[in-house]
Design brief:
561 residues; mainly beta; six-stranded mixed sheet; four-stranded antiparallel sheet; 3 helices; globular
Length: 561
């Protein structure tokens, strides 16, 4: 029976038309909306700002800090609330309203994770707050263990815009081992009217580290802000901010975390590109040992371009990758995020939102792209009607369901939840590839034994399966019997379908009652010498009748000397 299935599958592979299905979206595995965190009152705008925090309550699952700038505190001005949401339950575990903060009449501004600044083993956090009369705007830093205020940071002189355009923590600028804090203010009138400013503070005690101000009127330095890590290899985390110095082209300034001096700048490639409208960490994208960064560029209303998400090399600003909307007339690139390795292939993936659209047939969505292949992994919408999906994309991912894989999240502060109008929501998604491996690389000279664990949905229990492999050819997929398979139509694939080489054990068989199976690849020393420097792309399919029914996502194994 297995020979018959393999033979039929081989014939189907030979006869099938191989292309990139679903606008190039990689097939296999399953994206699941893990949880929805939502506001509770009308026009609360929950999710306007948010950040991952890490595990605060010792349940092994990370939490999220979320701002609700229009939460109804009883004040006619709706002065805001900051909440800590449990990653495990989705429920609020702590919150503070503006009227509960001494000396503040509003906390309707940015929030950020701080990292463990007091070295108690629990991550801390910060949020914007203040009052207008007498003018006192500050960033309040709180303990993630006790939810007590640790200290406040203030600008060198009172200013109303301090922190309103961004605050970012969790990165060590000074090299003392303690994460520090950066605060942006694009409306500061110090050196020049609306020149803007960026201030850095010690995470240890809130003391000032450095200040950079815009020298040209209307420069508005600090409209966007991110801390992508060490970009130039000097051991100090660096800072990126945008400004209006180049008008609607957009200008991004890459600053040394040590002293705030400018290392270089980038300018948008066309009028109304607005490069730097959003920005994010992406880790070491090109794996050269230094961090890189991601910028958004978007203005669909007036520009002929659709908008972009662009990855730049950290030490010199060379463009490494560019992502463009697959559907025109969308606000693509308005928000971007390096979301971590969501597909488990060892590379940081990115998300780019298209948060508004004039065409009803193409509602707002968030697109996730592979850091390995640059292919689209998914076009994602929540289970709720989309109002402004992707208004915020959270960076650096976290495991919120305890499966050991990185999840990602985005917000829609205008979402109506359970009949509560514009309550706002944060949507957390996870990806199940149905396939995991014990190693992503093996040595030809030493030989190796690698296991591949298949874990299909329970609907596939006891069904036959086939483990397949092909050359790594990004963007080339096949469709067999109506099922998209994430492998290229190569000689190796056809050989695997006809009967796997003896080095593969259990490449065919039946899934158990839990829809699981384990495949083993055993290579003696030197057996893979002809394939050194190449990458094997693997996937598995369950079978219904004589055709594939469900496919795993691909997984990659590189052959080293």
């Amino acid at each position: 029976m297995q020979f018959k299935l393999s033979k039929i599958l081989t014939l189907a592979l030979l006869a099938s038309g191989w292309n990139s299905p679903l606008l190039g979206q990689q097939p296999g595995g399953n994206w699941v909306e893990h949880s929805t965190l939502a506001g509770l009152t009308d026009v609360e705008k929950f999710g306007s700002v948010a950040d991952w925090l890490g595990d605060l309550d010792a349940d092994g699952i990370g939490e999220i800090v979320v701002g609700s700038p229009l939460f109804d505190t009883g004040d006619p001005l709706r002065t805001g609330k900051v909440s800590i949401m449990s990653g495990q339950t989705g429920l609020e575990i702590w919150s503070i309203q503006a009227n509960q903060i001494p000396g503040a009449s509003s906390n309707a501004g940015p929030v950020t994770r701080m990292g463990d600044i007091n070295q108690d083993g629990i991550n801390d956090f910060a949020f914007w707050a203040g009052q207008g009369f007498p003018l006192d705007i500050f960033v309040s830093v709180y303990s993630g263990a006790t939810f007590m205020e640790l200290y406040r940071v203030r600008p060198p002189n009172p200013r109303s815009g301090f922190g309103t355009t961004g605050i970012a923590g969790g990165t060590d600028l000074s090299g003392d081992g303690i994460p520090d804090l950066v605060v942006a203010d694009d409306s500061y009138d110090g050196t020049a009217i609306l020149g803007g400013a960026v201030n850095a503070y010690s995470g240890l005690d809130g003391s000032p580290l450095w200040e950079i101000t815009g020298a040209i009127a209307g420069q508005r330095l600090g409209g966007s802000l991110a801390c992508p890590g060490d970009l130039n290899g000097d051991g100090y985390a660096d800072v990126i901010v945008d400004s209006d110095i180049s008008g609607s082209f957009g200008e991004v300034h890459v600053l040394s975390g040590l002293d705030g001096s400018e290392m270089y700048s980038l300018t948008g490639g066309y009028n109304r590109a607005f490069l730097g409208l959003s920005m994010s960490w992406v880790g070491d994208w090109d794996q050269d040992g230094l961090n890189d960064f991601l910028l958004g560029s978007s203005d669909p209303e007036f520009s002929p371009q659709n908008g972009f998400g662009i990855v730049y090399r950290g030490f010199d600003g060379l463009e490494l990758a560019r992502f463009e909307s697959p559907v025109g007339d969308r606000d693509f690139g308005n928000r971007v995020g390096g979301v971590g390795d969501v597909d488990g292939d060892g590379f940081v993936d990115v998300a780019v939102s298209a948060k508004s659209n004039s065409a009803p047939q193409d509602p707002p969505a968030v697109y996730v792209y592979s850091g390995r292949t640059l292919e689209m992994l998914a076009e994602i919408q929540s289970s709720l009607p989309a109002a402004n999906h992707g208004d915020l994309v959270l960076s650096q991912g976290a495991d919120l369901n305890g499966d050991g894989r990185v999840d990602f999240a985005f917000s829609d502060p205008s979402a109506t939840v359970g009949g509560v109008v514009q309550a706002g929501a944060v949507f957390v998604f996870s990806f199940d590839p149905y396939l995991e491996t014990s190693a992503t690389a093996l040595s030809s000279s030493a030989g190796a034994s690698v296991t591949f664990d298949l874990s299909f949905p329970l609907t596939e229990a006891n069904k036959p399966y086939l483990f397949l492999a092909s050359r790594n050819q990004p963007g080339q997929y096949g469709n067999v019997g109506g099922l998209d398979i994430p492998l290229a139509n190569s000689h190796f694939l056809r050989r695997m379908a006809a009967g796997a080489p003896s080095e593969f054990q259990n490449a065919t068989g039946n899934l158990d009652a839990n829809a699981q199976a384990t495949v083993t690849l055993t290579l003696p020393p030197g057996a893979a010498s002809a394939y050194i420097g190449k990458t094997m792309k693997c996937a598995a399919v369950s079978l219904s009748g004589i055709y594939p029914n469900v496919s795993t996502a691909p997984i990659y194994v590189g052959i080293l000397p």
